[in-house]
């Protein structure tokens, strides 16, 4: 093997490692954003439910 093919193999390995890390970080970030959206929707539903329950109780 000559010097160029060794550096090509090293470059491919580094590219795969960097891509794997970036995809992992991206999926973690997307999952975090999805969880925040779900929590926001549930919080709004609970708020509306509590508000309607307490407004009926006052009447």
Question: Your description of this structure?
Answer:
This is Flagellar biosynthesis protein FlhA. This protein is 95% helix and 0% strand. It is mostly helical. 0% of the residues are buried.
Please supply descriptive tags for the structure shown above.
rod-shaped, mainly alpha, 59 residues, 0% strand, 1 helix
Short description:
Keywords: Membrane, Transmembrane, Transmembrane helix. With 59 residues, the protein is an all-alpha fold. The protein has one helix at 3-58.
Order of helices and strands: H
Biggest β-sheet strands, sense, barrel: none
The rough form would be described as rod-shaped
Q: Are there runs of 5+ residues with pLDDT below 50, and where?
A: none
CA(first)-CA(last) distance: 86 Å
**Helix/sheet category:** mainly alpha
Q: Give the quaternary arrangement of the chains.
A: single chain
Radius of gyration: 26 Å
How big a fraction of the residues is strand? under 5%
Summarize the amount of helix as a percent range: over 70%
Count of beta strands: 0
Provide a count of the helices.
Answer: 1
Average pLDDT taken over every residue: 93
